[in-house]
């Protein structure tokens, strides 16, 4: 018995070194989501469109799928996109302050489309779902901005019709 | 659903412009199209997760039954039968694990790990228990994983892999029990070994307790080697392990100190005070 138990002890030793590997994905999650947000933000500012998953992966230099640990998971992508929504709500407010009255309207169209998109998803009660719950507040904030502009007649341009073509 | 609930929150807010804008969203825009595909992807993933949870439950139940069966093992004549039956049961569990492996092909194991981890831990507990009864030693994780390499041998699969087929790739699936699941399963094993110790005394076997004490101590030493560097669950189990070890050591102590004073057939009663009550509480 002691001999075989000695083998077990050695085994525990090798096991210990392998314990770390699975932790890394969780550690990287937050950073990854942050990076997705930044990529999405840059792309939005450039083109006022939603960056695609593939484009993000390219920007970040990761494989789009399935590589161990460093692939861009759909949930990370979506989390980053939701962070973009919050940032755009902020941008809408500051645009008005800076005198840009048309940007908020375009942001509003974009956010509404984003919201419609997210409504298609069946989410579980996880962190993504919680973050998604915050989207409606972003939507509301942007609508308030648009409303404030419209009752004061500041949105001289017509609301961009058929706003979903982006 | 949640959509209706959300709209109520906006009741104190002008409806006009909002409704208009939402109707302007083009349902076949690039964004909407990609979200539709996201919907499909997420649904598929969630469905798979649920299937794996169900498999994990089945694995857990059957493994637990195997453990109960193995507790009935003694060196009596029907011992061999019990071992054979346990092998049959474990084969059934392995078939379930094969299904798990098939579900996980091409998937990132990490995402689904939480679905199957409990089942795998229970399996490790059962198979290591059987291994201990046979060999009085601890099965290694490599040995466990060797048994979890599956090939297409069932009737419905051979159509894909006949020797003349162009596709020369034999279909094999394998599942690797992770080090963490292995450790947690072994930690649970110690609880069963503790029960084995107590019950073996009741059977008049006074050698097993001492063997078990040594064996458990070695396992305990192994765990302290890992200490707190492992995940939280391991630390939690370590605590229970200490208690199991203490019970076994106390049993050995009692045997040593008072064993010679008490006739064998009454030994069981000596242990039937606190320990059996605790065993009943811990029982399923």
UniProtKB/TrEMBL annotation, chain A:
SUPFAM superfamilies reported in the protein's UniProt record: Translin
Binding, Mg(2+): 87
Domain of life (superkingdom): Eukaryota
Gene3D superfamilies reported for this sequence: Translin, domain 1, Translin, domain 2
GO MF annotation terms: metal ion binding; RNA binding; sequence-specific DNA binding; single-stranded DNA binding
GO BP, sorted A to Z: RNA metabolic process
Main location: cytoplasm
Keyword Nucleus: yes
One term under GO cellular component: nucleus
Subunit structure: Ring-shaped heterooctamer of six TSN and two TSNAX subunits, DNA/RNA binding occurs inside the ring.
Family from the record: Belongs to the translin family.
Name listed for the protein in its UniProt record: Translin
From TrEMBL, chain B:
Composition-biased stretches (Basic and acidic residues): 11-24
Keyword annotations from UniProtKB, A to Z: Cytoplasm, Developmental protein, Differentiation, DNA-binding, Golgi apparatus, Isopeptide bond, Magnesium, Metal-binding, Nucleus, Spermatogenesis, Ubl conjugation
GO terms of biological process kind: cell differentiation; spermatogenesis
Disordered, as annotated region: 1-27
InterPro entries per UniProt: Translin_C, Translin_fam, Translin_N, Translin_sf
One Gene Ontology MF term: sequence-specific DNA binding
Cell location: Cytoplasm, Perinuclear region; Golgi apparatus; Nucleus
Chain residue numbers at which the record places covalent cross-link Glycyl lysine isopeptide (Lys-Gly) (interchain with G-Cter in SUMO2): 274
One GO location term (cellular component): Golgi apparatus
Principal location: cytoplasm
Domain of life of the source: Eukaryota
One Pfam assignment: Translin
Signal peptide stretch: none
Binding site for Mg(2+): 125, 192
Keyword Ribonucleoprotein: no
Biased composition (Basic residues): 1-10
Family: Belongs to the translin family.
Subunit details: Ring-shaped heterooctamer of six TSN and two TSNAX subunits. Interacts with GOLGA3, TSNAXIP1, SUN1 and AKAP9. Interacts with the homodimeric form of C1D following gamma-radiation. Interacts with TSN and C1D in a mutually exclusive manner.
Function statement: Acts in combination with TSN as an endonuclease involved in the activation of the RNA-induced silencing complex (RISC). Possible role in spermatogenesis.
Name of protein: Translin-associated protein X
